[in-house]
Amino acid sequence: MKTIMVCIKHRYTDKPSCGGRGSDALACALEHLIADRQAPVKVHRFPCLGLCELGPNMKVVAGEMYHHVSEAMLPDILQSALDEPEA
Ligand code: FES
Domain residue spans in the chain? Predict the structure, then answer.
């Protein structure tokens, strides 16, 4: 099954974090989209993808990494996971 990693790290300092920029809601919205389409893709909530200042960040396993993710980008990210060959 394809996997999309979603950074959900929260920082409670002045440093940026994906969780502080709404990635929890994005992960839930992505799961709803996957369920609606019955897509063979799972969401893996991840503690940090290492590019915190560019968040919210998501990574299609064996595929693209996406920065500054918004809800409008989720269909394209899901499609890119579906287009990725099985690892
Ligand atoms: S906090 Fe999301 S990549 Fe580090």
Answer: 2-83
pLDDT of 87 strictly over 70: no
CA distances from 34 to 3, 37, 54 (A): 11, 5, 24
Pick the CATH number of 2-83 from 3.40.50.360, 3.40.30.10, 3.20.20.20, 2.30.42.60: 3.40.30.10
Atom of ligand 1 nearest to the CA of 20: 1
Question: Are 1 and 40 within 8 A, CB to CB?
Answer: yes
Top mutation candidate among 44, 52, 59, 69 for ligand 1, by most atoms within 8 Å of CB: 52
Asked whether the predicted pLDDT for residue 41 surpasses 90, the reply is: yes
